[in-house]
Design brief:
This protein has about 280 residues and is of the alpha/beta class. The protein has helices spanning about 20-25, 75-85, 100-110, 135-145, 160-170, 190-205, 240-245, 250-265, and strands spanning about 5-10, 45-50, 55-60, 90-95, 115-125, 150, 170-175, 215-220, 225-235, 270-280. A hairpin with a 2-residue loop joins strand 2 (about 45-50) and strand 3. The relative contact order is 0.14. The structure holds guanosine-5'-triphosphate and magnesium ion.
Length: about 280
Amino acid sequence: MKNKIIKIALIGKTNAGKSTLINKIVGEKISIQNKKINTTLDLIVGVKNIKHIQMIFYDTPGSNFLKTFNSNSKTLKINLWQAIDDSDVILYLIDSKTIKLKFLFDQLNKLEEVNKKKIIVFNKIDLVSSKNILPFVNKIDSKYNIEAFFSISGKKNKGIDNLLKFLNKFSYNSKWIYKEDELTNKGDEFIISELLRETILTYLHKEIPYNIDIKTTEYKFLKNNNIKIKQKILINENRYKKIIVGKKGIMIKKIREECQQKISDVFKKRTHLYLEVINA
Ligand SMILES: Nc1nc2c(ncn2[C@@H]2O[C@H](COP(=O)(O)OP(=O)(O)OP(=O)(O)O)[C@@H](O)[C@H]2O)c(=O)[nH]1
Ligand SMILES: [Mg+2]
């Protein structure tokens, strides 16, 4: 059978569950997820091969930014539009628990200009009854040209197989873009830095997670096959250091231990993580 591909842009408001879904589909944690807003900042590719079909998913930063294309969050928007441009199908993900019709119509109006197949996916169906979704489906369907509607739970792995089957109908003959065992466009060091950012998002609040930079300065396999990693948390204000380190170093210890465990889980190797906070 001839090889086929299909490229799908996963877009939707911040917190809709895009990264959680891509991780479930790929079967590995390639994109960090968190209940805070704007978790994903980069364009992240996740690859799922099913028999002769290569499915390429683009995880994107939350599309709240569609509205204000010229403000300072420019890079986020560029990443988002790059994914939209390069995709064959747009999968618009909605958090079923917090549907705001006006916002949704606003976003769908913007997407009208984009001449691609659109699929709407109601996510987090584990939190609401499907009865609540139907009126929204009818309203959207009467106004926009949507290929199909799905309801799923990315977290609980419900409805994903059906969605993938449907998406595959749009695949077309082409050489595969990624090698068979390649799951993402991002290297290990990027994923490691992201895991630290995810942990920091969990423990530190307000502007801090969004005002730090993370640099992986050492990443090596030891003779015993353990991984040794050194990371620098770069801050731009001295007062952040006290908060990140915490009283008697308690905060940084928590962050280090949790992140070390996450890296061990993702790479399935024992990890030794060393962190340093530096005012850059
Ligand atoms: N109950 C429930 N929670 C979910 C589901 N999918 C995602 N979540 C939660 O929703 C939150 C946001 O998930 P993310 O995957 O980070 O959302 P995102 O759309 O990638 O967000 P940004 O990167 O900020 O645009 C996390 O706390 C997830 O655990 C789901 O199907 N059910
Ligand atoms: Mg995300």
